[in-house]
Amino acid sequence: MLISVEEKFKNIKEIFIRLSLTQKFLISSVVVIFIILVLLNIFIYLDFKNFFISVDRKNFEKRFRKSLVSSTSYYVFRNDWDNSLDFSPIFNILNNEPNLLDAIIYSADGKRLSVMKEREIIKLEGKSEGLLKALTGKVIYEIKRAGETDSLENLNVVDHKTIVQEIYYPVVFNGKVKGVIEIYKDVTDVFNNINKARFRATLFSLLGFIGYVFVIYYIVKKIEEREKRLKEKVAHYEKLSILGQFASKMAHEIGTPIHVIMGNVELILDECEENDFVKKRGENIARQINKIQNIIRNYLYVSKKPVPVYEPVNLKELVSNIVDDMSFTISENIELRANVDEVTIFTDKGFVEQILYNFVKNSADSIGENKGFIEIKSVIDGEYIKLLVVDNGKGIDEKIKEKIFNPFFSTKKTGKGTGLGLAVCKELVESLGGQIFCESKDGKTTFGIVLPLKGKYA
């Protein structure tokens, strides 16, 4: 079934409407520039010839008229043109004309009187259209192929590709046409150069158009990439907004029962003896409840900038509690050890706990059921301290290292991770004025943070 032109146009229009704004811009700009270049090349092709004729006519008339008046006034202006006149002075003037093939002298009634080179031309009969116009006093310029001229054979032009310029120049005195000078010039080289100029103009236009298309395509590509990143950011912030609303609701809903549980745990601890096993387990429960409260608070920070609460923190004690708590949650095949300095840092205790907890948990997931180790280390560097969690798990692929701190990015199977743990850690570290990093080489993976020993503004 044949599709009508109207239906084709409608289909193209629908496809164009579905394109993105940048794609529409690319297509529209390319089409507009293409049309402009086509019109420009048509203008160049058609007008070069007219331009050449116009310039050559001005130059010829200026040059010839001046020589004619100064050198042949007696012959031209004071006598009637007939066979008795000597036209050699006119031919002497024309002899200096570039690319001259021949010249013919006509009387006022169109009779051939003299020929510059080929005497056979004088025998030709008939009057050309250009001569008839010139006999009325008009200067006529014509460009023809050699085969189209009236005097081809007599001009001894054997190459039919030769381009000939015919000039019919009337000599007028006191308003009366004395006669006409017909001039034949070989302008083949000139028009070959014109054609070369046309070709170069077309070639450069084409190359410029191709270059323009590549530049516009590159710009549009960059715009689309930026647009894609912006869309991803918008989607990201929409997710954060939803997460923030969810976390706020959960914090409100869970907060009350947690406070009740914490109150009961504190009552139990008050009744226990100092070294009682139940009291140790109760203290462990209390720490876990505090962690739950911190986790809820920290997940709220994904949707708004966290505000740390600074206090003196004994690093060795903090890490020791993390090791004790995490020992019950990771595989027995994993050795969890600590090697930290006995130092007090001024920071937010809950933030640091949450960060190290996430690092250890991720390391344990990386090792899985294999035999391995996780080591928490500290390195003091001037006014800063590095906290490192090193493991011998499967490591981090270089291709995704830059993405692991992005919200909702996870390498774990569906249901095994939210993709928020490291994103929260990044937010917490930055709120403390520190930096977060990850290295994976030589079979070891290190997640670390750099924090000021005396707080962000110390």
Describe this structure in words.
The model has no long low-confidence stretch (mean pLDDT 77). The protein is rod-shaped. Strand 1 (100-107) and strand 2 form a beta hairpin. The chain has helices spanning 5-18, 21-77, 88-94, 129-134, 188-271, 277-300, 315-326, 349-367, 421-431; strands at 100-107, 112-115, 140-145, 163-173, 176-186, 311-314, 334-339, 344-347, 372-381, 384-391, 435-441, 444-452. The protein is of the alpha+beta class. Helix 5 (188-271) packs antiparallel against helix 6 (277-300) and helix 7 packs across helix 8. The protein is built from 9 helices and 12 strands. The relative contact order is 0.06. The strands form 3 sheets. It has a 5-stranded antiparallel sheet with strand order 2-1-5-4-3. A 5-stranded mixed sheet has the order 7-9-10-12-11. The two termini are 81 Å apart. The longest helix has 84 residues, at 188-271.
Helix coverage percent: 40-55%
Q: Name the helix and strand elements from N-terminus to C-terminus, one letter apiece.
A: HHHEEHEEEHHEHEEHEEHEE
What would the principal axes of the Cα set say about the shape? rod-shaped
User: How are the strands ordered across the major sheet?
Assistant: 2-1-5-4-3
The number of helices is: 9
- Total strands: the figure is 12
Mean pLDDT: 77
Low-confidence stretches: none
How far do the termini sit from each other? 81 Å
What percent strand? 15-25%
Computed CA radius of gyration, to the nearest angstrom: 48 Å
- Structural class assignment: alpha+beta
Q: Largest sheet, described in full?
A: 5 strands, antiparallel
